[in-house]
Amino acid sequence: MSAKSFVEGGIASVIAGCSTHPLDLIKVRLQLHGEAPTSTTVTLLRPALAFPNSSPAAFLAAETTTTSSVPKIGPISLGINIVKSEGAAALFSGVSATLLRQTLYSTTRMGLYEVLKTKWSDPESGKLSLSRKIGAGLVAGGIGAAVGNPADVAMVRMQADGRLPLAQRRNYAGVGDAIKSMVKGEGVTSLWRGSALTINRAMIVTAAQLASYDQFKEGILESGVIEDGLGTHVVASFAAGFVASVASNPVDVIKTRVMNMKVGAYEGALDCAVKTVRAEGAMALYKGFVPTVCRQGPFTVVLFVTLEQIKKLLRDF
């Protein structure tokens, strides 16, 4: 029973991850949009610091002025630009890393969540409280993220590579080449760069996504509005995807920037968050929110609809 839940969750996650990969790529590019190289920022801020009466306010004003020149772009425009400049195949950059990530991370979190649900359910009623569902999601998400972090770092870098100048592109041949190059050039620890953020995000996403799906589904069935079937699964999963997007987007932005950074760009997650907010404003933490919802919604729908169908197919095994 336990092994079957891992297989079911893994298959559903791989299908959902690969089918929504272009949306995830656009989300990553938007989250990195506006991020300036460290050297450029320092050079442009020096004139502000050169005035004898300069104050912190003047410093911030100069920084704001520097970054405000970055043109805003929407997900559709960005998608069109990617296809025009890099070709349609660029929308699937890093898909091999997505495949590995879903195999490691999502298989672990989906399977473990089901195991914990079974263990923590009330033995008489078989029901599980919302708080215990959230707890199961937090534990499952954290462990899954620790397992899948190397693939996550590789995926972010491969997705973001096309936005770099030609001379700075990493040009990984695939997820295996990305991991090998990172270990060779930056050390084994680079595979777990941003792991604290990845784990925090995964705990939030898994708790919000899986627990809310179960909760929404139970609420719909108890209300008697819709019977258990495709309609219930679609409505509950889309609502769960929206909840997960709202809860995880700020952590996701910081995670993406830390994983994609050149060595020394940020001292850590907190430093990245502070620099991002100072340079681009607090709403920068919700950059890519529209594509996050557009990706998280379809991903969650595909994930749970596929999962429900796989459960039916494997019910007798």
TrEMBL record:
The keyword Lipoprotein does not apply. InterPro entries: MCP, MCP_dom_sf, MCP_transmembrane, Mito_Metabolite_Transporter. This is Mitochondrial uncoupling protein 4-like. SUPFAM superfamilies: Mitochondrial carrier (SSF103506). Gene3D superfamilies: Mitochondrial carrier domain. It is found in: Membrane. Keywords: Membrane, Repeat, Transmembrane, Transmembrane helix, Transport. The keyword Secreted does not apply. Belongs to the mitochondrial carrier (TC 2.A.29) family. The gene is LOC104730994. It is a multi-pass membrane protein. Solcar repeats lie at residues 4-119, 128-219, 228-313. Pfam families: Mito_carr.
